[in-house]
Amino acid sequence: MDWATHYKRSSILGFKLDSKIYFSIMLNFKKILKLVIILLAICFLSCKKYLDVIPDNIATIDYAFTLRTSAEKFLFNCFSYMPAHGHFNTNPAMTAGDEVWYMDPPRDVGTDYWLIAKGQQNATDPFGDFWLGERSGKDLWIGIRDCNIFLENIHKVPDMDDYEKERWSAEVKFLKAYYHFYLLRMYGPIPIVRKNLPISSSSEEVKVSRHPVDSCFSYIVQLLDEAASNPNLPDRIIGSAEAAELGRITKTIVLAFKARVLVTAASPLFNGNNDYPGFKTADGQPLFASGSEQNKWKVAADACKEAIEFCQRNGHALYKFDTATSSFILGNDSIIKPLLIKQLTLRGAVTDKKSNPEIIWANTSSRADINIQRWSIPILNTGATSGSGPKGILAPPIKMAELFYTKNGVPITEDKTWDYAQRFALKTAVAADKFYVKEGEQTVQLHYNREPRFYSSLGFDRGIWFGNWSGNSDATKPLLYPKGRKGEYSAKQGHTNFSITGYWIKKLVSLNTAAASDGALTYENYPWPEMRMADLYLLYAEAMNELNGPSAEVFKWVNDVRERAGLNSVQDSWTNYSSDPTKYTTKNGLRDIIQQERLIELAFEGQRFWDLRRWKKSHLVLNSPVRGWNILQADAPAYYKEVLLWSQTFKIRDYFWPIEINEILKNRNMLQSPGW
To answer: What range does the domain containing 237 cover?
Structure first.
């Protein structure tokens, strides 16, 4: 077998390279390595953050662990494989599903994941390939290989204290678990890479195969337990260390992530999935166990409870906007001030980066920078067409606007006081509506009498948009609002700078990001919130309901999230306003309620894509049309007509990514994902 083929396989298998062999290879590929180093230098030259460091070229693995400084660079390298979720081009959950849409994006908008959403995934050259690191994916097998190299060598570093070696080892064990989980969630059963194979491995030894799903989850949890039990891993990074070490792994992160892993393991996609009866190892072992195991929900619930209690002991809680330290002028109006505080609270829970107690895992390797913010915010004033300003391209479909509850805290299809059949009828805003819709303007009934998260998450034609414009931080002055009809400032600007659906993502734009009169943005980036307390609360509620059905414990955690959102309890809302008033009293009914609560609370944060999959609901939800408003019309009656943008399709095979065909041909033991 030639070395090039052997090396490519090593990205999957994680070969352990002997120092002399490795040095020889480096010399033989000197020109290639120089090119790689130059490209890496260009890509990361401007990165100043703690985890944004890529190691210098190191001739041998042994040399990398002769000094603390070089070992630290290798540690940062282990972090560098983490997928960048704070950008729509590198987060598959952002545009590969149905949360956002765009039409004919410009060249600086990646389309790989959007083509998955359009049903064009393939096994010849897969989009979002995290197996080989192609088509907007990262090669996570190389990441796992480097984690193994680190764990096998960190003890050799002479100028380090043992406690620091142990702390770094715990962090890398977490990363190794995270990369395994990412691949497992994406590809289904995967090979487990406990240790790197030696370079002397035979051609048969490198032909590894997938492991059963339960074995994969067990190994991931084992790594997380080892990391969490390490006494040198800090519980939480606070005080003076926060500025330098934000983004480093802590025990709170490990425990919260373990809860997510175990809830995923207990969910229908992986627990008793009978859709793939012929998916077996070479020796006939099923890769999916038949029959759902109820005990998996018990294990998941226990992990969630442990994580919540530990996070709370370490200062984590649901976020509330701090009016005392705010630079926003809210005035003393007894009606508008509480409404604005609620909006600022709900947006700040995701975007506020200053000692935000809600964020458990603030991923500094994946920041929500100017790109995702300017592609989310519309042009909010006349003449604001700067090239660096708002674009408003990321467009939620109408189905996302329909997802949120009414002001009474129940779905729009169930609220007895809300006329679902007339949701597309026009209504002119009156004085009582002026804090949500521009008074005297027309929009559809769908935009009235909705819950606070609707108005804090979505922007729409004639809907109030507080903040994000120079001079728009004073609520005592007239507020701004998008105007999206033909010829208006938020409407289509040439080929770009417009929402294809007529909606914009308000939720992802930092409250401290502001556009000037010419549209130029002064933006505040923030670490992507990989996990926050509301997510953890709802995971616990879900696990407890699946375990024992409705109970006071289940309602407590759902209702805490709802209360922060300005809604009454599940019990009160359904009893008083739902056409199905006893829905919450059954496990099935409460399951639907909890799932919709997650889809609302975590909308546009990259959770819907994976939640629909683990619930095995993607083939139901992602086979519905993607629709928007008729944005090329100038008057309200014509503008507010549904337009079909795409007839989306999702097949059972789409639950798992395909492996590139060439990889399957090289290794007869590696099974292709079912249906591909």
So the answer is: 3-293+657-666
Residues 241, 546: Cα–Cα separation, whole Å: 40
Query: With helix as H, strand as E and coil as C, how does 471-532 read?
Result: CCCECCCCCECCCCCCCCCCCCECCECCCCCCEEECCCCCCCCEECCCCCEECCCEEEEEEE
Query: At 118, which CATH number?
Result: 1.25.40.390
Residue 147 has pLDDT above 50, yes or no: yes
Give pLDDT, residue 107: 58
Measured CA angle at 147 (ends 49, 654), to 5 deg: 90
Distances (CA, A) of 649 to 111, 302, 620, 657: 17, 37, 10, 15
Q: DSSP assignment of 200-214, as one string?
A: T--TTTT------HH
For range 244-253, the mean pLDDT:
90
CA distance linking residue 638 with residue 628, whole number of Å: 13
**For 673, which DSSP code?**
P
More confident residue, 36 or 179: 179
Longest dimension (CA), the chain: 78
Whether 570 is covered by a domain: the verdict is no
Nearest C-alpha neighbor of 664 from the set 85, 210, 100: 210
Residue 67 structure tokens: 């000094």
Name the amino acid, one letter, at 240. Answer: S
Classify residue 107: in a domain, yes or no.
Answer: yes
Q: Chain-centre distance of CA 199, in angstroms? A: 36
**Measured between alpha carbons, how far is 302 from 266 in angstroms, rounded to an integer?**
12
Give the residue from 216, 362, 197, 383 showing the smallest Cα distance to 289.
Answer: 216
* pTM to 2 decimal places: 0.91
If you search the block for the tokens 């480096």, which residue do you land on?
26
In a domain, 486, yes or no: yes
- Do residues 281 and 380 share a domain? no
Do 346 and 490 belong together in one domain? yes
- Residue in the block written with tokens 């077998």: 1
Query: Does residue 451 lie within any of the structural domains?
Result: yes
CA-based nearest residue to 178, from 112, 102, 122, 258: 258
Question: Is there a single domain that holds both residue 389 and residue 288?
Answer: no
Instruction: Work out the end-to-end distance of the chain between its first and last CA atoms, rounded to an integer number of angstroms.
Output: 27
Strands (E), 332-452: 359-368, 426-428, 442-444
202 and 279: one domain?
yes
User: What's the Cα-to-Cα distance from 410 to each of 120, 192, 432, 593, rounded to whole Å?
Assistant: 36, 44, 22, 9
- Tally of domains within the chain: 2
CA 134/CA 657 separation, integer angstroms: 13
The tens digit of pLDDT for each residue in 390-437 reads: 889 999 999 999 999 999 999 999 999 999 999 999 999 999 998 899
The answer to whether the beta carbons of residues 98 and 116 sit under 8 Å apart is no
Phi and psi of 87, rounded to 5°? Answer: -140, 140
